[in-house]
Design goal:
The chain has helices spanning 3-13, 17-42, 46-63, 75-88, 90-109, 121-137, 140-143, 148-171, 175-178, 181-196, 203-206, 225-257, 263-279, 289-297, 303-319, 321-325, 329-343, 347-354, 357-373, 376-396, 425-430, 454-469, 481-490, 493-500, and strands at 71-72, 286-287, 399-405, 412-420, 441-451, 473-477. With 506 residues, it is α/β, with parallel strands linked by helices. The protein has 2 domains: 17-388, no CATH class; 399-500, Transcription Regulator spoIIAA (2-Layer Sandwich).
C-alpha cells in the first residue's frame, strides 16, 4: 500500500489515537444532557434523540466533510420538529427526516455549499456567540432552586475542569493533562455523590435511558400525496436549519484547527446521516458547535473522535446504563458551562468598539434574534439580510461623477468612477445636469466605472436618452466588455445602439 496514502489516512482519521478517543469521550458526556433536553423539546422519548445521535455520529464520521466535528440531535432541529410531532406523531417526524436528508444530499451534490460564502464573518461571530449564550441558558433550569450541595458540586466540577490543566502546567506534571479534566470531573463527582450520599439529581432523573439497540424500520406512515403534503414544509425547514448550523459549525472548526473542509461533502454527508437516523427511529440532527468545540479543545482532530463519540454514547446508553444513570446532572452542567465559555468569542466584545458600526450591528442582530426566537436560521437570516443591506449601502457610496467643460470646443465631459448597481443607480442619474448641457457635445467616460446589473445599464441608457432629448450629441467611452455583454443579453437593440454606437448615431 502506498505510504503517502497511509499518511493521509492517518492524518484524516487519527493523528493521535489516545487523544481522539479521550476527546470523543468528552464530547459524548457533553452530548447526553443536551440530547435528552432536545428530545423533550421535540416531544419525543429520550431514546429517539440518543439513538439518533449514535447513528448520526457513526455515519457522518465516514461521510462528512469536516473531520473532528460532532453532529447529533440538535435543539434547532427539535424546535422545527416539535409542531409536526404534536399534530401527527413520531412516524411523520421520521418520514420528514428521510425527506430532509434527501434534500441535504441533493444540496451537497449540487455543490450549493458555496452559498455559505455569503455569510459574513460578523454573522458567523454572532452565530457562535448566540449559541454559547443558549448553551449556558440551557443549564439554568438545572440550577433553579438548587441546594447548597448542588452549588458546591458545580464549584468543585469547574475547579477540576479548569484547575487540573493549570496545575499540570504549573507543576510540570504531564499526567494531569493526559486524561481530559471533564472526564475526571464526571468520575470524581459521581464517586463523591455516591460515597457521601448527596441528594443530587442524576442523569436517570432526566428520562428513561434506552435498554436495547436501535432497530432498522421504515416510518409507519401511509405512502401518499397527503403524507407528502404534511411533511414537505417541516422537512424543508429541518433540511435548511440543519445545513445552516452544520456548515457554520464546520467553519468554526476550520478556524480552530487552521484546516479547510469540504462544505459540499458535509452537506451531503449530513443528509446520508439523517436518512440513516430516521431509518433507525431517530430524529434528524446537525452539527453541534458546543460539542465540536469541546472535542477540538481536548485534542480531537480526526474522524476517529467523531466515530468514538457515537460508539461511546451507545456503550454508555446500553452496556453502562446503570452507571450513567447515577452520574450527577451537575457534573454535565459543569462541562456545558465550560463548553459555553470556550465557544463564546470573547474578543468580539472588544471588536464591537473597534470594528465598523454596521458590522457590529449585524453581529448583535444575529445574537439578539437567535436568542429571542431560539431559532438559528432566523438569527442568521436576519444577519445575512442586514449584512447585504449594509454592504449595498457602503458600496453605493463608492461612486464619483466629475464634470469638465472644454472652453475651446464647448464639449462637456463627465468622468464616472466606482460601482454602479441597483443601490447607486439613482445617485448616478442625479449626478448629470442635463439642462446645463443642453445643445452641447457630451462625452460620458465610464472607463473607471463598473456596471453590475441591468438596473445600472438602464440608468446609463436613461441618462443618454435625456441628454439626446435636450439636443446633445452623446458619446459613451470606456464601456467594459462585461457591461457590453450584459447589454447584449438584455436583447434591447435600441439600447445597444445608444450605448455602444458612435456620436453620429446617437
Amino acid at each position: 500500500m502506498n505510504p503517502s496514502f497511509l499518511t493521509r489516512l492517518r492524518a484524516e482519521w487519527a493523528p493521535s489515537i489516545p487523544r481522539e478517543l479521550l476527546a470523543g469521550a468528552v464530547a459524548t458526556f457533553a452530548l447526553i444532557p443536551e440530547v435528552i433536553a432536545f428530545s423533550f423539546v421535540a416531544g419525543v422519548d429520550p431514546s429517539v434523540g440518543l439513538f439518533a445521535s449514535f447513528v448520526i455520529s457513526l455515519v457522518i464520521a465516514f461521510t462528512g466533510g469536516r473531520p473532528a466535528m460532532v453532529s447529533a440531535a440538535a435543539g434547532s432541529v427539535a424546535l422545527v420538529a416539535a409542531p409536526l410531532v404534536q399534530s401527527h406523531g413520531l412516524g411523520y417526524l421520521l418520514a420528514a427526516g428521510l425527506l430532509a436528508g434527501a434534500v441535504q444530499v441533493a444540496f451537497g451534490l449540487m455543490k450549493l455549499g458555496v452559498l455559505m460564502r455569503f455569510v459574513s464573518s460578523s454573522v458567523r461571530t454572532g452565530f457562535v456567540n448566540a449559541l454559547a449564550i443558549l448553551i449556558f441558558a440551557a443549564q439554568l433550569p438545572h440550577l433553579h432552586g438548587a441546594s447548597a450541595a448542588t452549588w458546591g458540586a458545580l464549584a468543585l466540577g469547574l475547579a477540576l475542569i479548569y484547575g487540573l490543566p493549570w496545575l499540570g502546567q504549573r507543576l510540570a506534571w504531564p499526567a494531569l493533562s493526559v486524561i481530559p479534566s471533564p472526564l475526571i470531573c464526571v468520575v470524581v463527582l459521581t464517586v463523591l455523590a455516591s460515597a457521601l450520599g448527596l441528594k443530587l439529581p442524576t442523569v436517570g432523573d432526566l428520562g428513561q435511558l434506552p435498554d436495547a439497540l436501535p432497530v432498522f424500520a421504515l416510518p409507519q406512515v401511509p405512502v401518499s400525496l397527503d403524507t407528502l403534503r404534511i411533511i414537505l414544509l417541516p422537512a424543508l425547514a429541518i433540511a435548511m436549519v440543519g445545513l445552516l448550523e452544520s456548515v457554520l459549525t464546520a467553519a468554526v472548526v476550520d478556524e480552530l484547527t487552521d484546516t479547510p473542509s469540504d462544505k459540499n461533502r458535509e452537506c451531503a454527508g449530513l443528509g446520508v446521516a439523517n436518512i440513516a437516523a430516521s431509518l433507525f427511529g431517530g430524529i434528524a440532527g446537525c452539527g453541534m458547535i458546543g460539542q465540536a468545540v469541546g472535542n477540538v479543545k481536548y485534542g480531537g482532530r480526526g474522524r476517529l473522535s467523531t466515530l468514538f463519540a457515537g460508539v461511546f454514547l451507545l456503550i454508555l446508553m446500553v452496556a453502562l446504563k446503570d452507571w450513567v444513570s447515577q452520574v450527577p446532572v451537575i457534573a454535565l452542567v459543569a462541562i456545558m458551562v465550560m463548553v459555553s465559555a470556550e465557544t463564546f468569542d470573547w474578543k468580539s466584545l472588544g471588536a464591537l468598539v473597534r470594528h465598523p458600526r454596521l458590522s457590529s450591528a449585524a453581529m448583535l442582530a444575529t445574537v439578539a434574534v437567535t436568542i429571542a426566537t431560539h431559532n438559528l436560521a432566523a438569527g442568521v437570516a436576519v444577519g445575512v439580510v442586514l449584512s447585504g443591506v449594509f454592504f449595498a449601502f457602503k458600496v453605493s457610496r463608492m461612486l464619483d461623477v466629475r464634470m469638465h467643460d472644454d472652453a475651446q470646443t464647448g464639449q462637456r465631459t463627465w468622468r464616472v468612477s466606482g460601482q454602479v448597481f441597483f443601490a447607486s443607480a439613482d445617485a448616478f442619474i442625479e449626478a448629470f445636469d442635463v439642462l446645463g448641457a443642453e445643445g452641447r457635445a457630451v462625452v460620458i467616460d465610464v472607463t473607471h466605472a463598473h456596471f453590475w446589473d441591468i438596473t445600472a445599464v438602464a440608468a446609463l441608457d436613461k441618462v443618454v436618452q435625456r441628454l439626446r432629448h435636450h439636443g446633445c450629441a452623446v458619446q459613451v467611452l470606456g464601456l467594459s466588455e462585461a457591461s457590453a455583454v450584459l447589454i447584449d443579453r438584455m436583447g434591447d437593440e435600441a439600447m445597444a445602439g445608444r450605448l455602444q454606437g458612435t456620436p453620429s448615431t446617437l
